Amino acid sequence: MDWFTASDYWLSRLVCQRALAGVYLVAFLTAALQFRALLGSRGLLPVPRHVSRVPFKAAPSLFQLHYSDRFFAVCAWSGCAVSAALLAGLDARLPLWAAMLLWLVPWLLYLSIVNVGQTWYAFGWESLLLEVGFLAVFLGNDDVAPPIVVLFLLRWILFRVEFGAGLIKMRGDACWRKLTCLDHHHETQPMPGPLSWFFHHLPRPLHRVEVAANHVTQLVVPVLLFTPQPLATAAAALMIVTQLWLVLSGNFSWLNWITIVLALSAVEFPYDAPPTPAAPLWYEIVVLAVAALLVCLSYRPVTNMVSRRQIMNRSFDPLHLVNTYGAFGSVSRVRYEVVVEGTADDVPREDSDWREYEFKGKPGDPRHWPRQFAPYHLRLDWLMWFAALSPGYAGSWFGTFVERLLENDRDTLRLLRRSPFPPDAPPRFVRARLFRYRFTSWRELRETGACWERTYVREYLPPTRLAGAAQRS
Fold this sequence. Notes:
By secondary structure, the chain is α+β, with helices and mostly antiparallel strands. Helices cover about 50% and strands about 10% of the residues. The protein has 20 helices and eight strands. It has helices at about 10-40, 45-50, 60-65, 70-85, 95-115, 125-135, 150-170, 175-180, 185-190, 195-200, 205-220, 230-250, 255-265, 280-295, 300-305, 380-390, 400-405, 410-415, 440-450, 470, and strands spanning about 315, 325, 335-345, 355, 360, 415-420, 430-440, 450-465. α5 (about 95-115) runs antiparallel to α6 (about 125-135), α6 (about 125-135) runs antiparallel to α7 and α7 (about 150-170) packs across α11. The longest helix has 29 residues, at about 10-40. It is globular and about 80 Å long.
């Protein structure tokens, strides 16, 4: 190891890069399969309307220069192709400068998507992927050992992710300090997974242990990342185990997986690295300049982290180079769900033939057991969870969503698990109702086969039809 590189982390870099390429692939695949209904020219929040209001300087994006649904599809699928090539190790076969440019491509493409993604892309893991993806450009390939400063910056991101999340919990909901949050969280989290029902029914003393262990992992263990080996590897391994526990307990998109990617960069694998030449001077200059920039930009996230008014998941620059993170500063005690229904009846009455739309991930039919989707991100399902918390979260898109259902819009229906209406016979009216959901008990599960029990709360949206439909009938 010389002053600039750390050959002992050759395998760590390789594993980290391949895992990151896999996350990129999932992210681009999610964008490619969902964008038309969410962001397309006839989407719920169209990109052309957004870029007409937001200047390029505030949100740099290729789509500020040109937008069409076809161009977006080309960018998203190109991102998939480049990510797959990186996953297969193409960067290792290229000269150092070409490998860096290849890693720059998915970062630029995904930045372009996030900066026009509006509320559909307002999640902390979008900025986290961009921040990690930008650093990956400078990790190098087989032509050079991984730079020490880049490895340090990856640990710095991991520290901010975990320590920031721990602080927001301690400053936020009192249940984190009382060790009681997991009495509710597995049931009320945005999108439960297939094991969430079982996690919820763990003994309450074990829930207390879970929360206490979470505090240790997020507030104590991150400091150990900056200690000598093998202590740093042990800290990273403990974080990986914790993230895998979270993967089992719910669907959190690729948040857990990108955190695991970061932790892998801190693990010193017992492996004899192949000999590599000294880093070229131009590479050292570029890496050190970028590192100095990122250290300077860290001022605002650090200031936010130590502030009593700490905020979660905020990007402080339009390139998402250095961001602040955090999750579940408060935990819901009750789960609400918006149930969307349609009817073909000419007059919408309470006793009409109302048929329920089924979503892929969010709870609906009480007998439908939750499925595992993460790291794939069901954006509409997640926003429906927010919509149930408050109609204000859905004000910009829910009305258009209902309109698309009334049209039997093909792209919108592809976001759902099942539509109750045939393609050539759309509903005449659509309504939405708010229900309270809770996990059934062991006895209720045996007797009914249902994992959920739901209770009607109130009307969310009254029966609605397309404008002018009455005149056409």
